[in-house]
Design goal:
Blueprint (H helix, E strand, L loop, with lengths): L1 H19 L13 E5 L2 E3 L4 E11 L3 E9 L2 E2 L3 E4 L1 E2 L4 E5 L7 E8 L2 E6 L12 E4 L11
Antiparallel strand pairs: 1-3, 2-3, 3-4, 4-5, 4-6, 7-8, 8-9, 9-10, 10-11
């Protein structure tokens, strides 16, 4: 039962991210125009999927697709403009019912390391997000 639920969530998660990038003419996870970073994992005991995804897409200007996943709650992905900074990049999201959040980070050693303003914690409870480069359909077990 849990395996089937996990496969369904992986499929729809991939479909959702892929459908948002239809303008590239390719699937996000195989596109030279996009890079996917994720700390999303499967919690074996509860059967939940938790974590965050950041997909950077190079269209006429760079965009970020950001999604936070907490158990059965999948927030709709936000697609926003990526802003370059002196130390890396940043982007703004406006979660429903919350203040605007600004993520500041950089890509180092094939992963994104960064954090949101105001001490905002990610879906895993961390103040600093570390998201390895990973296919959006790759959802390993939580450690």
């Amino acid at each position: 039962m849990q395996k089937r639920a996990r496969e369904t969530i992986q499929y729809f998660g991939s479909l959702l991210i892929g459908s948002l990038a239809i303008g590239t003419g390719q699937k996000v996870w195989s596109s030279p125009l996009a890079s996917s970073y994720s700390n999303v994992c499967y919690h074996e005991e509860t059967g939940d999927i938790i974590g965050e995804r950041i997909v950077i897409i190079a269209l006429e200007r760079p965009y970020v697709i950001y999604q936070s996943i907490e158990g059965e709650h999948f927030s709709p992905p936000d697609m926003v403009v990526l802003m370059k900074t002196k130390s890396g990049f940043s982007f703004k999201i406006e979660p429903r019912g919350e203040n605007t959040l600004i993520f500041s980070g950089k890509i180092e050693h094939d992963r994104i390391v960064g954090s949101f303003n105001g001490g905002h914690l990610d879906a895993l409870g961390n103040s600093v997000q570390v998201l390895p480069r990973r296919d959006v359909s790759d959802i390993p077990g939580c450690k």
